Amino acid sequence: MKLLLRNKINLSIPKPCHENWEAMTPAEKGRFCSVCSKTVLDFTKASDKEIISYLNNNKNACGRFNNYQLNRDLIIPKQKSSYWFITTASVLGFLGLNSQTVFSQIPLKTEQTDKIKTTQDATKTTLGLKKITGVVSDDLGPLIKASVTVKGTTKTTFTDFDGNYTIEAKEDDILIFHYIGSKPQEIIISNKNQINVTLLPEFVLAGEIVIIEKKKTFFARQIQKIRNWFR
């Protein structure tokens, strides 16, 4: 079943197993379900790459997944070939050499107005920001390494060992709180400087895995062929 690496795929569990996970007999990499007479593998902490690697070598598997792992395209990190890296590095090196030659021929100009403009822009950017602090936890207590992100930006921070976080944002910004195995939660920043959040567990499904393959378009296949030349 090596087609998984060529096409986009996602996983589905159309007939979830309703047996109690904790009541199942512990087995290697999962638990044994006496009703199905199968070992249900625990994929809740597995990466997309690990899931695909297992399914490529095992058919008719039963698995336990977080809800967010299902019904979406699995993502495989692409490895860049050494040839492609060397070619790219050579081109960048050539461009860099030419850039140094060109810039060395242009006299540098420093104007006071540029400094003033830069200072004004920086002031506008930081205006309205305030420090938000709080604790992220679940029903068992504080969460370590839970992420806190200002929605629509790349600004992210993580909670410490006591679940504490600190982040700068503006009023009416939206903070997204997320932790593996928990449902993401969004909160709009109001006039409060402290926001404590309790995340709820993500719905977990277990059962026979159904693999849905999405064949690439003709154009995508041609692009893939070109990429393969550089591997």
From TrEMBL:
Going by the entry's taxonomy, the superkingdom of the source organism is recorded as Bacteria
Q: Which Pfam families match?
A: CarbopepD_reg_2
Q: What is the name attached to this protein's record?
A: Carboxypeptidase-like regulatory domain-containing protein
The record's annotation in InterPro entries points to:
CarboxyPept-like_regulatory
